[in-house]
Amino acid sequence: YVTLAVALRTERDVVTAVRVALGGVGLSVVRATDAEQVVLGRVLNRDVAVEAAEAVQRQVRPPAHVGASGTYRREAARRMLGRMLLMRLPAPLYSEPREVLFWSLSQSPRL
Question: For the whole prediction, is pTM greater than 0.90?
Answer without folding.
Answer: no
